[in-house]
User: What shape does this take?
Amino acid sequence: MIAANQQWLHATTGRTTTDPHSWMTAVHWITLQATKGHYRPTQKHSPKWGPTTVAIAQEISALTECRPGVDYLARKLKVSVRTVKYHLGMLRETGLLVYRSKGTRISGVGGRASEFERTIPLAFDLALGIRTIGEGAMRRAVGAAQETRTLLGKLAKKAARKTRRTRRRTPVSAGPRCTPMEGGTTGTSPAAGTHSPSESKLASGQASSPTPKSSKRGPRTLNKVGRRYQLARQAITTIPWLHGASVPRIAWILKDFADAGWTVREVQAVAESIPMPAYGVKRPSGMLADRLRGKAGLSEKMRAGHVVMWEESRAAAKDRHDEVTDLGPGPRSLAARRAVDEAFAAIQARFTPEMPEVELSPLGSIDELTRQEVLDLRHEAAKNPDVILDMIRALGERDARRLYTNRLVDQTLALEAINARRNTLAPAF
Assistant: This one.
């Protein structure tokens, strides 16, 4: 018997299990103990441990998340809600269930089912000589005593079978079920003139039915809701940043698009017409709803144009990526890379004509420039990025960023790094 304060995951003496078969083995062991009279429920007016308890345990063992709603179990087993509560209490008292979180009733939200953890009581391990490793509720079984393996085998066979509750058969009425042989005021039986049919009429029937059933069925067509869920599943599978999103939520966002006959390629093209954020997508469903807002009425021609532009942009991005990766991995060793760089630098310095140094005219302080002069310098730098490199050497990177903005300086430095890498890895002859 487990006390109420020990029916929680942090206070239980049992061990948790994720295997439904092992847990049902412990359930049938408790059933055996209840049959011998070793367990009696503490709640008043509670039913005894029996087939209903085992049937509720079987439904609980089939749940992925042990969150058995009382209403669900009552509908599934065709019993009352009070009966389900009684049997859940018995499962907790015997140490087979412990609370992970207790259900609540929040105003405006509705009741939330309690979340349980399936556990195997400590008494089961001690009685059957189960050896475990670990500590606390996370202990795991590693073996069993030789003398109890026969009993474990019998319990395992019971756990593998589906227990069904016996149906109650109530008579339609309390009167007799047979019709009296005599009726009316006559003394003759109404069956006196009947006779047995001939054997030729006792056959099972004709060889072929006059109305044969058609076994041919065409392909099932989806209704409006089915098309919405189909498009949602295709979008979650195809679009990378939608992986892991909720199918019902995406189906609700795409309901107008599915009704208008959109394809998943058109949905992705329109949603990715705006560049994706560099920091990633935190709420995929929210981003999808924001990017598709008001665009369900696009014509087929406009949707096809979006698809063409999206495919061209992806092809261009792939070409840029291939252009950078075509340079090859180069030598792996640090010393080998340094030797190759020095060799190419010496060859390049030998065959590159020396350029006369150009003195940069001093600009003075950047703060002394007028707004129009700053705009003119930025316009000139946008056409000729070498100007930014000259200013970085003359003024320093900090003042160059103040003058030309971080975006222009970062673009120029990135282009310079790519050009330097190409020149370094280019063939010498």
In short: The beta strands are 15-16, 97-101, 104-106, 110-112, 115-120, 131-133, 140-143.
